[in-house]
Amino acid sequence: MRLRAVSAFAILAWLFFPFIFAVVGLYVFARPGAANPQLIYGILGGGLIGYWGVAYLDGGLTIQDERWNGTLEQVFAVPTPLWVILLGKVCGSILWGMLSFVPTVAVAYFGFHALVPHLDSVRFAVSFAVLTFSLLTIALALAPLYALWRWALPMFNGFEFGFCILGGFMFPVTLLPGWAQGVAGALAPTWATRALYASTTSSGPHDFALWWLAAAGLSVLYLAGALFLYRLVDRRARMTGELALA
Amino acid sequence: MSRPSGPAIEIAGLRKTYVSHRGTFRRTRVQTVGLDGIDLAIEQGELFGLLGPNGAGKTTTVKILTTLLLPDSGEARVLGLDVVKQTGLLRRRIGFVFGGERGLYWRLSGLDNLRYFADLYRIPPDVSRRRIAELIERLGLSGRERDKVEIYSRGMKQRLHLARGLLNDPEVLFLDEPTLGLDPVGARELRVLVRELADSGKTIFVTTHYMFEADSICDRIAVINKGKLVAEGTPAGIKRLVEDQGVVEVEVEGISAHHLTGLRGLPGVTSVSVGEHEMAQVVTVRCANPAELITQLSVVLSGIKLQKVSSREPTLEDAYVQLIAESS
To answer: Is A5 in CB contact (< 8 Å) with chain B?
Structure first.
């Protein structure tokens, strides 16, 4: 966590970028005539984009970070398994990522006087926990993928904001075409985000149990994939000797 | 201090090949031999040096022994543990330091680097606190441990590397070119420290390019070239390989390839190498009979100015140069 705290790029990702997104979102959704239920996308959307960005970049790049530092061999050769070390690092990143909500909620409250009167705090907390777990598992799966496949990083880089749309961070997924909704359904955060937004409004129908289960189930699948990929990284690194390469 | 008995490192028929690809559109598979069936046994408490030119297989050997690489075939055991199958147990008992400045978290302090790696080695907090304080003191980092690594000098970074390598109080320590890039004083301090560690009972496996370094600190050395061991023994024993020879050093200005060919053609000459010294070149000729060679120099090197001619006993470096030349 201390490494992240001294990274200018990470600080921008937690605080500055979410703030920009939140201001834009709030201007769009708080304009005269806009329906009030949409305002919540302005309040939380910027934070969600920041939170995802931290998980995707900070968390996903944990192995590459070690490569760039030249510390990957040192970390690899300790008794603690690599996936345990990276789990700690990704958890650290995710914890810092929660800071993304501070500037966005602050600008919503102080700048736009936006409130969430129908917040179901228990369901909101559970949905947020499920969302956090889903982002954690995605970051854990991306980290070995980036290390194994050199095309993965540029490819997912282009996908960063596409994911924000498919995840329903700034507007409901139901506004997307059918095929895109199908793709979105395979992403665990989409379900968690749906539950998160639903917990802020009284208008239903809401099926929280199904959404939480879908998000958690997909996350467990990502986790299984991640563990497989870590074994592959371990094996391939020791076969080819490419651990120290940038 | 008396040494514990039994081998700390055993290597039998170790082989490693690297596969890479050449070309952008027409990709061809290229195989490079890293190790070509080496056998080695190092006793506990021994300070062992592995010497060889770039690409000879030194780092490959260290990486296999530290569990970072898998061999293609052969067997390697460290402290009786298989480096392929018993990695978890082995990693707790060994330490390694690779040369160069990388391998540390530059944006963290030296102290934070050590604390972090102590956690990764699962050292209990009370033990790690005490050990880190001892290592900081012993390696001369006191007063600077809270500074960020990015402002450390090269020598301080290398001492911090060594502190990290010693965190788990390893029984076997691997040092891959530990004095690379250090100034003479820093390199000497590090050598003294390494010798002290060996005297305290640790087994140390060091790779180096510097012959005087191996000569001054190692109990035993091996020379590796193109993945094969070409000699093994004590530094004195390796030097004895060339004891029937002498070395003539000639300081000249403007020597040409033609002159060097002439020198190489003289009877009894085994190798000729050229180095730079200020504005002149120093030609080192290894030969069977230095006195006779000196009488022939003025003929072979006619037309150029001989500044200085001297004869000396062969060193470990001379033995090394000859071994590498013979095996190439």
So the answer is: no
Do residue B229 and residue B274 come from a single domain? Answer: no
B111 and B127 in a common domain: yes
Q: Is the peptide bond before A205 cis (omega within 30 degrees of 0)?
A: yes
CB atoms < 10 A from the CB of A27, how many? 12
B2 within a domain of the structure (yes/no): no
With bands split at pLDDT 50, 70 and 90, how would you rate the model's confidence at A246? Answer: very low
For the segment B75-120, what is each residue's pLDDT rounded down to a tens digit? 999 999 999 999 989 999 999 998 777 889 988 999 999 999 999 9
Chain A residues whose beta carbon lies within 8 Å of the beta carbon of residue B18 = 240-241
Domain assignment of residue B270, given as a range? 246-327
* Mean pLDDT, chain A, whole residue set: 83
Q: Which phi and psi (to 5°) does residue A150 adopt?
A: -65, -20
The structure's pTM equals 0.81
**Across the interface, which of A3, A74, A241 has its CB nearest the CB of B108?**
A3
**Inter-chain residue contact B106 with A69, CB threshold 8 Å:** yes
A-proximal residues of B, 13-52, CB under 8 Å: 18-19
Q: How many domains does chain B have?
A: 2
Q: Is the pLDDT of residue B32 over 90?
A: no
Q: Is B108 in contact with A69 (Cβ distance < 8 A)? A: no
| B69 to A241: CB separation less than 8 angstroms, yes or no | yes
The dihedral through the CA atoms of B105, B108, B111, B117 has a sign that is negative
Report for A14-18, A169-173, A218-222: range of highest mean pLDDT = A218-222
Task: Say if residue B137 is in the same domain as residue B260.
Answer: no
Residue B144's pLDDT is 92
User: Do B167 and B267 share a domain, yes or no?
Assistant: no
Mean pLDDT of B57-65: 93
Contacts of A5 in chain B (CB under 8 A): none
Describe the strand order of the beta sheet including B269-277 as a list of residue ranges. B269-277, B280-287, B246-253, B305-312
End position of a domain, from candidates B190, B209, B240: B240
Q: How far is CA A59 from CA A88, A167, A220, in A?
A: 10, 18, 17
Instruction: Taking residues B305-309, report their average pLDDT.
Output: 84
DSSP character at residue B148: B
Whether residues B253 and B223 fall in one domain: no
For residues B21 and B72, state if they share a domain. yes
B211 and B296 both lie in a single domain: no
Name every chain B residue with its beta carbon within 8 A of the beta carbon of A83: none
- pLDDT over 80 (residue A7): no
Residue A37: per-residue pLDDT: 67
Domain end position, chosen among B190, B207, B240 = B240
Question: Does B214 reside within a domain?
Answer: yes
Output the six-digit token pair for A161: 């904001």
pLDDT of A101-123, one tens digit each?
888 888 777 877 767 777 788 99
> Do B189 and B73 fall into the same domain?
yes
What is the domain-level CATH number for residue B319?
3.30.70.260
Least CB–CB distance from B68: residue in A70, A73, A80: A73
What strands lie across the sheet with B28-43, from one edge to the other? B28-43, B7-22, B73-78, B81-82
Residue B306's contacts (CB-CB under 8 Å, 6 or more residues apart) are B250, B251, B252, B297, B298
